[in-house]
C-alpha cells in the first residue's frame, strides 16, 4: 500500500455519502458503488468514479469501506454475486462501518483471511452530523496491523478512533454503546413523565438536575426535544430497534440477562406500533407517557 | 430579618455537619441540635452553640435548616415533642434539606403557615464532597419571597440553586433526579456485564463510548468503580432505596407507570439481600452480574 492508498466506498446512504465525501475532499482517489446509482452523483461531481459492482470497485482499490444497513446487506456486498470477495487478494483491507452481527463479522473475517485479505469491523456512532464533520466515533475490531495501516484514512472520518481488539470486538463495543444509549433514554422518559404528571416546570427541572449525577448526553440532547414534542429523527427508532435486536441476540448467545435493555426494546416496539418507527429515538417518550395517560 | 440572619441547624450527619460548617466558616451566628450530641463538637469548637431541643434552637434563630434522613425524622424535629413548631412565629423560615415525601412536605408547610412561619423544601444532591465544598445542587419548593430571603445563605452551601415552584416541588425535582440517577446506573451495569461476558477490554470500551451519545455522569464516575470492584459508598444503596421508595409512592399517587425505575428498585432489593446495603450504588453491578453468572 502506498502512502496514498486507492479507496473504494460501498453504500452511499446518509452516513456513507457524507463519509465518502470527506475522503474525496481529502484528495484520496475514490471509486464508489451504490445499489441506487443516482446517490453517487454528488461524489462523481467531485471526482470520484463509479463501479458497476462491489467486486469491480474492490479490484481497483487497496482499501474498501462498507456502510450499509444490516447483516444481510453486508453479506450481499461481500460474498453475494459481484461481491468484494471476488476481488479479494493479499493486501486488500475491507473496513465495515455498518452495525451488524458480531458473529457474522467473525465469519466474514475468516472468509477474507482465507484469500489473504483483511476484514475489519468498524461501526460508527455520531450520526449524520458526525459523518459530515468527521467527528464520528469509530470502534474497530480485527487485525491490528491492518488497523494501523488504515488509521490515517479513518482519521478523515472520525475523531475518537478506538482499536477494540480481535474481529467482532468493534461491533460488540458498538452494541455496548447502544445498551447505554437506549436505557439512558428510558431514564429520561420516565423522569420527564413523572415530572409532567406532577405539573413541574420541565425546563427548570432539567436545569436543576442536568449538571449533576443525573446528567447524560441523552438528558441534555433528547430531554428538551421530548419536552417540545419534537420527534424529528437524529437516529430513528427503526434503526435503534435493528441494533437492539443485535444486542439481545448477542446477549442470548452468552446467556446474559439484560432486563432494562429488553424493556426498552419492547417499548420501542410499542412506539413502532403507534407509527413512530421513522421518528427519532426521543419518541420513546410517547410510549412511557401513554402508559400513564387517560386514553 | 437583618442582613445577617441568626441560623439554626438540626441534624449533623455527614451531610448536615459539612453544610453547617460552611455556615460557621461564613461567620453566621449558628445554633445546632443533634440527637447524638457528640456530633456537634467540631462545630462548637468553631463557635457554634448547642441547643437542647429543636424548639430551643428555633427560638433563637431566624432561619432553621434541617438535614435528617427520612419523613418520620423531619416530622419528629418539626412537630414532635420539643419540635421546631413550638417556636414557630411570624418571620421564621424553616429550610428542609432532607429528601422526604412531597405529600408530607405540603402538610408540614401548612402546619407552619398556620403559625405565620414558612417551611421550604430544599433537598440537595452532590454528596459529602459537594457539602464540604459548597457545590451542592439545591432544589427549592415553597414560598417564593421566603426563598429569596434565604438564598444568600443557601449560596454558602450550594452552587446550582433552583427555585422549582410551590411547596413539594423541590422534593419532586429531587425525585426526578433519583429516577435519572438510578435508571442510568442500571444502563451502565447492563452495558458492562454484556461487555465483560464477551471478554472486551472494559477500560477501552468505556473510553470508546463515554464521550458520545452513550455518555453520562454515572458511566464516567461509577463505570470505573464497577470495573475495579470498588464498592465504597459515595451514596449508599440503602439511602437510594429510601429515595426510590418515595419515587414509587409518589408515582403511585398519580398513577404513573415507571417500569425501569421499578426494576432498579427490585434489583437494589436483591443487592440489599446480598449484603450490599451499605455499599455504594455502583454495587448494583453485582446484581446484574450475578443474574448471568454460573453460581
CATH homologous superfamily identity of the largest domain in chain A:
NAD(P)-binding Rossmann-like Domain
Query: What is the tally of beta strands of chain A?
Result: 9
Structural class determined from secondary elements of chain A: alpha/beta
As laid out across the biggest beta sheet of chain A, the strand order is 3-2-1-4-5-6
- The CATH architecture classification of the largest domain in chain A is 3-Layer(aba) Sandwich
Look at the structure and give the CATH class of the largest domain in chain A: Alpha Beta
What is the global morphology of chain A?
Answer: elongated
Q: Topology, pairings included?
A:
The structure is a homodimer of 295-residue chains.
Chain A: E1 7-10, H1 14-25, E2 30-33, H2 41-45, E3 49-50, H3 54-59, E4 63-66, H4 71-79, E5 93-96, H5 102-113, E6 118-121, E7 124-125, H6 127-133, E8 136-141, H7 144-154, E9 158-165, H8 169-197, H9 202-209, H10 217-228, H11 237-253, H12 259-273, H13 284-291
Parallel strand pairs in A: 1-2, 1-4, 2-3, 4-5, 5-6, 8-9
Antiparallel strand pairs in A: 7-8
Helix pairs in contact in A: 1-6, 8-10, 8-11, 8-12, 8-13, 11-12, 12-13
Task: Record keyword descriptors for this entry.
3-stranded mixed sheet, alpha/beta, homodimer, 295 residues, 6-stranded parallel sheet, N-(1-d-carboxylethyl)-l-norvaline Dehydrogenase, domain 2, Rossmann fold, 2 domains
Characterise this structure.
2 copies of one chain form a homodimer. With 295 residues, chain A is of the alpha/beta class. Chain A folds into 2 domains: 7-165, 3-Layer(aba) Sandwich (Rossmann fold); 173-291, N-(1-d-carboxylethyl)-l-norvaline Dehydrogenase, domain 2 (Orthogonal Bundle), CATH 1.10.1040. Chain A is 51% helix and 13% strand. Chain A has 13 helices and 9 strands. Chain A has helices spanning 14-25, 41-45, 54-59, 71-79, 102-113, 127-133, 144-154, 169-197, 202-209, 217-228, 237-253, 259-273, 284-291; strands at 7-10, 30-33, 49-50, 63-66, 93-96, 118-121, 124-125, 136-141, 158-165. In chain A, the strands form 2 sheets. The first copy, chain A, has a 6-stranded parallel sheet. A 3-stranded mixed sheet of chain A has the order 7-8-9. In chain A, helix 1 (14-25) links the parallel strand 1 (7-10) and strand 2. The longest helix of chain A is centred in the middle third of the chain and has 29 residues, at 169-197. The mean pLDDT of chain A is 97. At the A-B interface, strand 9, helix 8, helix 9, helix 10 and helix 11 of A face strand 9, helix 8, helix 9, helix 10 and helix 11 of B.
Amino acid at each position: 500500500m502506498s502512502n496514498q492508498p486507492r479507496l473504494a466506498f460501498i453504500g452511499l446512504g446518509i452516513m456513507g455519502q457524507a463519509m465518502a465525501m470527506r475522503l474525496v475532499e481529502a484528495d484520496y482517489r475514490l471509486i464508489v458503488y451504490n445499489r441506487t446509482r443516482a446517490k453517487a452523483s454528488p461524489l462523481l461531481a467531485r471526482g470520484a468514479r463509479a463501479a458497476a459492482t462491489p467486486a469491480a470497485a474492490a479490484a481497483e482499490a487497496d482499501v474498501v469501506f462498507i456502510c450499509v444497513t444490516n447483516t444481510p446487506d453486508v453479506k450481499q456486498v461481500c460474498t453475494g454475486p459481484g461481491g468484494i470477495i471476488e476481488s479479494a487478494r493479499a493486501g486488500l483491507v475491507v473496513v465495515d462501518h455498518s452495525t451488524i452481527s458480531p458473529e457474522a463479522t467473525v465469519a466474514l473475517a475468516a472468509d477474507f483471511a482465507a484469500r489473504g485479505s483483511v476484514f475489519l469491523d468498524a461501526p460508527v456512532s455520531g450520526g449524520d452530523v458526525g459523518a459530515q464533520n468527521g467527528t464520528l466515533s469509530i470502534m474497530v475490531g480485527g487485525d491490528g496491523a491492518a488497523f494501523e495501516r488504515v488509521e490515517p484514512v479513518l482519521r478523515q472520518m472520525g475523531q475518537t478512533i478506538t482499536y477494540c481488539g480481535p474481529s467482532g470486538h468493534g461491533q460488540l463495543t458498538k452494541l455496548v454503546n447502544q445498551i447505554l444509549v437506549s436505557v439512558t433514554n428510558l431514564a429520561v422518559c420516565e423522569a420527564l413523565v413523572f415530572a409532567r404528571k406532577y405539573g413541574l416546570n420541565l425546563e427548570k427541572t432539567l436545569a436543576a438536575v442536568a449538571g449533576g449525577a443525573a446528567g447524560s448526553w441523552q438528558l441534555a440532547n433528547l430531554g428538551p426535544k421530548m419536552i417540545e414534542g419534537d420527534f424529528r429523527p437524529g437516529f430513528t427508532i427503526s434503526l435503534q430497534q435493528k441494533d437492539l435486536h443485535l444486542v439481545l441476540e448477542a446477549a442470548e448467545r452468552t446467556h446474559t440477562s439484560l432486563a432494562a435493555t429488553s424493556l426498552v426494546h419492547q417499548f420501542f416496539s410499542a412506539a413502532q406500533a403507534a407509527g413512530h418507527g421513522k421518528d427519532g429515538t426521543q419518541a420513546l417518550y410517547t410510549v412511557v407517557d401513554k402508559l400513564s395517560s387517560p386514553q
